[in-house]
Design a protein that fits this description.
This protein is α+β, with helices and mostly antiparallel strands. It folds into 2 domains: about 260 residues, no CATH class; about 100 residues, SH3 type barrels, CATH 2.30.30. It has 10 helices and 6 strands. The radius of gyration is 31 Å and the shape is elongated.
Length: about 400
């Protein structure tokens, strides 16, 4: 019978848990997709690059969405069972709340082990891979950024195209201005052209046809006493010119940032941080990851008592209090990590004290809900606040509907 109960509780949790994870990931990735499209739109295979970058971001956002999804899933599933009097039926048959919550506690341990893999290994590697792709995108300026009739910048070159055909990589009429600084300036016009691939360089190459070139050894000066620069004028039938610039051929090795280190590497290098990273930053990152891993096993004990309202009308307020508490804990730990990294504050005070306080509160609440009959003090306070607010808003609505002054 207990195994049947376990399966039933997990089935009730599965739908809101999976839905919350899916919605959370979609919202977070959709927001980032807009920014990535703004960076890569118009580049060759831009949508492929965007989806590759989004794939690298999944472990990062999953680490954020998983605790929130588990918390919401527990609130909705246990609230539904409580609202349908299923919790009361379990209790009447001798199955206590602590036994009902046992399968979700085991599930939270499994998710915590998965979180160790995500936070300890996947996130550092995918963060580095994401930065490598961003480096490639930002350091190779590509022809596909161009729009018809709009001046565009590619490295030292400013150009404008007419009648652009992206699918064929061709265009008609181009004006190209290259300011090389001390190397002089060059102006090129051509009647048509095409983008070609060069296997020897990641830079695209423009093949111009039927054009004119004007080269000056330096920028002209408005000073009347200075001679005009020497110029060279030429015509050409076909000319190839690379477009853009590459600052480095390869991206730097992984590990230049503490967030790119795996958990064993982060522990081993506490006293030998990467260049540009302080010991306080290494310590802050380590404690932040450890707390993220330990948060999931604590969530069932925090969520279940808030989902089991003694009075049905106040359940929504309990949901709000629970969510505010979880968000506040997350923000306090984030600010504590910043204080530790910037000022060297003790992580025991800035991060572990808030986390352990909420953990102790969750344990006390769960014990009270499981083994005591009297309503907890927090439940009474929430109920009184809810009743007061409901009367206040009902009074306002009554005055508005009856035309009385508020």
């Amino acid at each position: 019978m207990f195994r049947i109960v376990d399966r039933y509780v997990l089935r009730q949790l599965a739908k809101p848990l999976v839905t919350s994870i899916a919605i959370g990931l979609l919202v977070l990735l959709a927001e980032r997709m807009v920014r990535l499209l703004d960076t890569t739109l118009g580049k060759k295979n831009s949508f492929g690059v965007v989806f590759e970058m989004l794939a690298y971001l999944v472990p990062h956002y999953l680490g954020v969405a998983l605790p929130a999804a588990l918390f919401l899933g527990l609130l909705f599933s246990f609230n539904k069972m409580s609202r349908d009097s299923e919790i009361d039926a379990f209790l009447a048959s001798g199955i206590g709340l602590h036994r009902i919550a046992q399968p979700v506690a085991i599930l939270s341990l499994i998710l915590a082990a998965f979180s160790v893999l995500i936070v300890g290994w996947l996130q550092p590697h995918t963060r580095y891979a994401y930065r490598a792709v961003v480096f490639d995108v930002q350091n190779v300026d590509v022809f596909y950024l161009a729009e018809e009739g709009i001046f565009m910048q590619a490295g030292t070159r400013t150009f404008i195209l007419d009648k652009l055909d992206r699918s064929a990589g061709s265009f008609e009429r181009i004006f190209l201005f290259d300011n090389r600084g001390a190397g002089g300036i060059e102006t090129v016009t051509a009647s048509s052209g095409k983008l070609i691939e060069n296997p020897n360089t990641p830079l695209p190459v423009l093949r111009l046809q039927n054009g004119h070139r004007l080269q000056l050894e330096r920028m002209p000066s408005l000073d009347a006493g200075q001679e005009p620069p020497k110029s060279t004028v030429s015509n050409f039938e076909v000319a190839d010119t690379p477009l853009g610039q590459v600052t480095d051929k390869t991206f730097r090795p992984r590990g230049d940032d503490e967030r790119e280190l795996t958990l064993p590497e982060l522990i081993a290098r506490q006293d030998t941080p990467p260049k540009g990273t302080t010991k306080d930053q290494m310590r802050s990152e380590l404690h932040k990851r450890l707390i993220a891993m330990l948060t999931l096993p604590m969530l069932p004990f925090l969520a279940v008592p808030f989902a089991l309202g003694r009075r049905r009308n106040q359940r929504n307020y309990r949901f709000g209090v629970a969510l505010i508490l979880l968000v506040a804990l997350h923000e306090i730990i984030e600010q504590g990590a910043i204080a530790t990294a910037a000022n060297g504050a003790s992580p025991l005070l800035t991060m572990w004290l808030p986390f352990l306080s909420v953990t102790a509160f969750a344990a006390w609440r769960f014990w009270s809900a499981s083994f005591t009959l009297k309503a907890g003090g927090l439940d009474i306070i929430i109920d009184r606040i809810a009743v007061t607010l409901r009367r206040f808003f009902r009074g306002i609505m009554r005055r508005i509907l009856h035309g009385d002054p508020v």
